[in-house]
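Translate structure to sequence.
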């Protein structure tokens, strides 16, 4: 038979019989979003009495969005009259504040303290009490010298929802509770191990719980995508996560498209403690083919002197099943590692990616290419009213020991309606038009090889 628990701290506050909703047998489900918010669905069962009573659901997070709380009762006919969220927790300071101008017991400051009674006059910065028998006012050395006869009726030991309800009979009642809370978030983190021709990619779901309560044995779902939310200027109670990360190996985490988003369902139940960060493996892909190259972007075409060229080190790979991928990748940070000639592993860079659907390419910035150098110079500059003619000369060099593929992307000024383009790019140099005002030059350079070419645009506007 289901046990009925009574809350002694709530008896003065609530007036009726009070039944603590037991946490045992809870079916807890959590959907976590990227915007520091989570949806909680908790189903429980308890035995109630016939008639009016108070159901006390303890352990509600301090960051709960109270307007989102939706309780549903099943198993018998009930009437729900009101719902209260009580979060004034018992503490020494709050007990003192609520006892001002009331009689309390206290121990004197002597070496052998005596117990007296008096009226509490002040709680901060010092505790001051007027003794009943003498009328003298004492300033106590410590607030712990005060003895309280009872807990103030408006206080509670845990943040709780209190339902004022009526049941038609005694028996088992099902409760299905849904609510939103702040303070829980998730993100995806990736580890990429770069090899000569292929890479291995591991993905981790990182969950942070700063909501104020722990969630035990929960079915966890993470939703990837930007959920629209109404702006709320009210502050939420936040706590700093201090515990060390804990990693769990989940194997394959099922993923599915859902209402314009993608969801990832952890295939086992997990407990997330308060102020805890937990990591769960959800992607493990091996032998993914990739392409590596360097990129320089030129979007300034004024008459200036020579400028040095610097190339970003990029890698790209196809997110397709044929390339051992083919999975929707939620946004996150990719941290990249590679082994040297002695097989020692080194961190080589990190890059942030947005949400990437299946069959879309993934492009990452590793860092800067050390051996790719060069210069650009404006070798022709003619500017008149409604006319401009600019020629840029590029010189690029590969000072390393491996062949490099280098790309120079020109983003031309977007003025004018009569634009003509010229270039001397040929042989181991090719050009591709990206849009009306952008083109990309690709140069293949062997070790210690250099290449020089010109690019010109003429525009009337």
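Result:
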């Amino acid at each position: 038979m289901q046990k009925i628990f009574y809350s002694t701290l709530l008896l003065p506050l609530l007036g009726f019989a009070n039944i603590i909703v037991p946490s045992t047998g809870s079916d807890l489900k959590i959907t976590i979003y990227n915007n520091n918010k989570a949806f909680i669905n908790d189903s429980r069962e308890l035995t109630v009495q016939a008639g009016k009573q108070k159901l006390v659901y303890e352990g509600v997070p301090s960051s709960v969005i109270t307007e989102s709380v939706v309780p549903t009762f099943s198993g018998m006919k009930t009437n729900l009259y009101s719902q209260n969220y009580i979060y004034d927790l018992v503490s020494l300071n709050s007990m003192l504040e609520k006892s001002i101008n009331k009689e309390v017991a206290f121990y004197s400051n002597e070496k052998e303290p005596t117990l007296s009674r008096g009226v509490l006059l002040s709680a901060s910065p010092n505790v001051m009490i007027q003794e009943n028998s003498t009328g003298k006012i004492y300033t106590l050395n410590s607030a712990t010298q005060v003895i309280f006869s009872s807990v103030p009726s408006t206080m509670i030991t845990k943040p709780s929802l209190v339902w004022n309800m009526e049941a038609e009979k005694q028996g088992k009642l099902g409760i299905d509770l849904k609510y939103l809370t702040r303070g829980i978030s998730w993100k995806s983190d990736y580890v990429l191990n770069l090899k000569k021709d292929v890479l291995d990619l591991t993905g981790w779901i990182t969950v942070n719980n700063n909501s104020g309560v722990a969630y035990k044995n929960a079915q966890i779902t993470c939703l990837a995508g930007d959920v629209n939310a109404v702006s709320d200027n009210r502050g939420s109670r936040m706590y700093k996560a201090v515990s060390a990360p804990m990693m769990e190996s989940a194997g394959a985490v099922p993923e599915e498209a859902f209402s314009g988003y993608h969801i990832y369902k952890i295939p086992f139940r997990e407990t997330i403690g308060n102020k805890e960060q937990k990591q769960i493996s959800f992607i493990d892909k091996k032998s993914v083919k990739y392409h590596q190259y360097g990129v320089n972007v030129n979007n300034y075409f004024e008459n200036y002197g020579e400028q040095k060229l610097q190339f970003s080190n990029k890698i790209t790979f196809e997110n397709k099943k044929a390339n051992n991928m083919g999975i929707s990748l939620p946004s996150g940070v990719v941290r990249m590692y590679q082994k040297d000639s002695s097989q020692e592993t080194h961190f080589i860079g990190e890059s942030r990616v947005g949400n990437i659907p299946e069959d879309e390419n993934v492009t990452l910035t590793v860092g800067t290419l050390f051996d790719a150098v060069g210069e650009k110079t404006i070798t022709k500059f003619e500017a008149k009213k409604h006319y401009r003619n600019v020629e840029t000369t590029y010189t690029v060099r590969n000072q390393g020991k491996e062949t490099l593929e280098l790309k120079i992307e020109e983003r031309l000024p977007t003025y004018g309606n009569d634009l003509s383009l010229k270039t001397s790019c040929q042989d181991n140099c090719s050009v591709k038009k990206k849009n009306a005002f952008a083109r990309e030059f690709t140069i293949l350079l062997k070790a210690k090889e250099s290449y020089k070419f010109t690019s010109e645009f003429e525009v009337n506007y």
